[in-house]
Amino acid sequence: MWIDRAIKWLLPREEHFFDLLEKGAACAQKAANILVAACADVGYAEREVQVKLLRDAEHEADKVIQEVYEALNKTFVTPLDRSDIYALATAVENVVDRMTSTASFIVVHAMEDLPNGSQELARHILDATGHIEEAVKLLRSMKRMDEIRKFCHSIHGAEHDGDQVFRTQIGLMFKQEKDAIRLLKHKEFLEGMEYTLDVCDDVANALETVVIKNA
To answer: Global pTM?
Structure first.
């Protein structure tokens, strides 16, 4: 084991991975800001614009993850375990994918209004992606693992709080909504928002794996 570590220390490492991970996290934060705008108290036309912007952000995130995969195939020694870079980059990209697919329901279902709880869930997603971005920035130095742990704890907290909002609103929806089609549309949208927070939680788990291995 110590020989492997010595070899890794002596060989040149590709620091470009940190740039890519930070770029991916920035894409997630950018997408979350767009999602908050899409869930704001605006009309359908304004939301449609935000959905298009989210798709642009998704394309940007797709390019980042492709760069990560290509770099992993070309780099002999990486600054973190190869599997951890792959898992973290993929989890971050999944956050953007999930936000985009959820927001797309607005257009696909021609949703003139969004269910109660949408704005609150969007803010929790924004909080989670903000913590993700800050945690990823700390990976470069590898000396502030306790701070990364705190950000992971905050991400878990955002997911937990969002889950409470989701359960409350779903319960109220089934009690109060009489229009079956509207119920299905709103339920699917809230499920997408809640699942986005679950994926943010996956990022926290990937970060915690990095911390455990490198502390």
So the answer is: 0.92
